[in-house]
């Protein structure tokens, strides 16, 4: 059981200086200027009073046995906090970390993302691979989720038995999301969430059941605004535009099938008829039903509109002979009347000499 105190910090700093140079010694009066503190792999079980180091910006506490986050109220200048590979069960006592930008909590025992109401500058949250009990999954407390939706840019929630990403709706600044190896299986629910992430560029969902759904990638690409990388594969603007057009076309076809055209409109629209005649046909169909029959009275037809009756070709007058028991029609050229040649003869008057007057 090792507790993080100022003595432990001084001893650690002294070891670091000694490893670099034997002639250098630590000055305790200058320790308050520390900005980076490396206390990883020190078997630390709890955080004690280290309020002396108010200038801390980066604190490394990974690979220890810390079970509770506490005594960090002094670290209002802290921007990076590394607490992965510990035994932390709850996110608490983080209210004073108003300048925190990166928080690493992977490989702990956390079930609820909470206590981040004042972390308005947090840009990266890594909370992957939590030891979650059977039947539970990682979830987000609403107040913390609201704050994170306005500032968080990178989120790693892989291997947390998550079944839905609805907690991430309208995370408007999020551009990198790692949700590998979870239990997400509803493609419609996933698509609805991704469509609200307007800044999302990199999405990783490998190892989820939803990746085996029909046209899983096509649906995500078509509904995303700025997705550039999906499961490690680049998504080009041409691909995104094609998927969006394909989605619109499918939607239009679905709407077209859902809206049925009335019988009268369907028939009359397919005919090239005057408007008045279309209305009369539609009215007759609805009055008489589908067994409507239209009869034509030959007497009412005009001379120009009467039907022409053509006799069978065997009885035509042009046929005049048979050959080998086959009726042969008369050649058409026999009907051609040969014009008699008109021979012009010169008259005797033309042979007479014409007398010209004297000049």
TrEMBL record:
Keyword set, alphabetical order: Leucine-rich repeat, Repeat
InterPro entries: Leu-rich_rpt (IPR001611), LRR_dom_sf (IPR032675), SDS22/Internalin_LRR (IPR050836)
CDD domains: PPP1R42
Domain of life: Eukaryota
Protein name (database record): Leucine-rich repeat-containing protein 67
Organism: Trachymyrmex septentrionalis
Lineage of the organism: Eukaryota, Metazoa, Ecdysozoa, Arthropoda, Hexapoda
